[in-house]
Amino acid sequence: MRRHFRAAHVIGLALGATLALAACAPTGDAEPVATAEVNLPQSYRFEPASITVPDGTTVTWTNNDNFTHNVRLIDDGGDVLDLPPGESVSFTFTGAGEHRYDCSFHPTDMTGVVVVTDS
Predict the structure, then answer these.
(1) What is the CATH classification number for the domain harbouring 87?
(2) What is the mean pLDDT of residues 44-60?
(3) Among the four residues 1, 46, 52, 108, which has the most C-beta atoms within 10 Å?
């Protein structure tokens, strides 16, 4: 009986710790940041992942990672902008709305959105 209680106690603690950590994790629904600069740090992500710019703004992505990435413009014709380490690429967004992009090499880890507002 004592062994079962101890096992249930350990499982309860582990479950509680897991839920606490999950509550602290970012939701991915962060408010867009007003900027035209996106960093690719050493962590397989776009930072910030969600930005907002006025119509006609040129956005620049800079790869500060050690690996080649790219920016695939999902909602803007599917163009792929190659991004070797230490390099930058830019694209001018036109048309209000959400413009999604990702890294075609790492689409599950690296996604982003540019929210274009009327200028």
Answers:
(1) 2.60.40.420
(2) 98
(3) 46
